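Quick one, T. Sequence first:
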Amino acid sequence: MAKWAKGLVLDVGCGTGNILRFLDPEKYIGVEPSVGMREKFREKHGFEPLDGHFLRIPLTDESVDTVITTYAFHHVPDGEKTDAIKEMLRVLKSGGGLS
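Structure tokens:
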């Protein structure tokens, strides 16, 4: 994943940002619904992720180059997974990558 996570990388359900140790993105945006996780992320990395979740990503259409969701997609209820994928694709630029 680290090799192709290029440009502006969006990490949906970023938690405390553990994936950052494996990435070297040009730019990174985390999205996390939990206040506590966002606070721990800020303590570890010096900046805070956006408040959001799989069904409400607070970004404009086609605004990121790569979307990752390494540690969180399994938490999305089965009945919401299709909508979650649509929302991630909404913010992904044409030709971008989703993992």
